[in-house]
């Protein structure tokens, strides 16, 4: 069986990002905006994060093998479903693979 490696473009088609929004892709591949190294549980193109014109930030899973989770400031952890973005707030953390990425305000 031949396993087809997804491309960045095909991975982003899974997420309905509004036109004009800058999207940051997290994953293991060198062409990701944020490369997560030394974590075999992170997919080549794991998740995407973008900010709307209003300043709201969202995360969406890109069909990753091990899923994307959002640890909220309230200590609740939510799974991010494919095609169902969740809002990200300062104090939250993205959990991808075994990597925790704290989200802070600028």
Task: Throw out a few tags for this protein.
four-stranded antiparallel beta sheet, 5% helix, mainly beta, five-stranded mixed beta sheet, Tumour Suppressor Smad4, 106 residues
Quaternary status: single chain
The overall number of domains is: 1
Task: Give the second-level CATH assignment, the architecture.
Answer: Sandwich
Find the structural class using helix and strand composition: mainly beta
Give the uncertain stretches in residue-range form: none
> Could you estimate the helical fraction of the residues in percent?
under 10%
Spatial strand sequence of the major β-sheet: 2-1-3-4-7
Q: Would you count the extended β strands for me? A: 9
Relative strand content: 25-35%
Q: What's the mean pLDDT score?
A: 82
CA-based gyration radius: 13 Å
Instruction: Spell out the helices and strands N to C.
Output: HEEEEEEEEE
Q: CATH topology, anyone?
A: Tumour Suppressor Smad4
Separation of the first and last Cα atoms:
46 Å
User: What can be said about the biggest beta sheet?
Assistant: 5 strands, mixed
Tertiary shape = globular
Short description:
With 106 residues, the protein is mostly beta strands.
Describe the structure.
- The chain is mainly beta and 106 residues long.
- It has a single domain, classed as Sandwich (Tumour Suppressor Smad4), CATH 2.60.200.
- It has one helix and nine strands; from the N terminus they run αβββββββββ.
- The strands form two sheets. A five-stranded mixed beta sheet has the order 2-1-3-4-7, with no helix packed on it. Strands 6-5-8-9 form a four-stranded antiparallel beta sheet, with no helix packed on it.
- The chain is globular, with a radius of gyration of 13 Å.
- The N and C termini lie far apart (46 Å).
- The model has no long low-confidence stretch (mean pLDDT 82).
């Amino acid at each position: 069986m031949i396993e087809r490696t997804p491309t960045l473009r095909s991975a982003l088609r899974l997420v309905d990002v509004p036109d004009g929004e800058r999207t940051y892709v997290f994953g293991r591949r060198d062409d990701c905006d944020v490369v997560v190294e030394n974590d075999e549980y992170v997919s080549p193109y794991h998740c995407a994060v973008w900010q709307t014109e209003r300043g709201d930030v969202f995360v969406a899973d890109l069909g990753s093998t091990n899923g994307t989770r959002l640890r909220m400031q309230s200590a609740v952890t939510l799974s991010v479903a494919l095609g169902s973005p969740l809002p990200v707030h300062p104090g939250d953390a993205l959990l991808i693979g075994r990597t925790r990425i704290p989200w802070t305000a600028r």
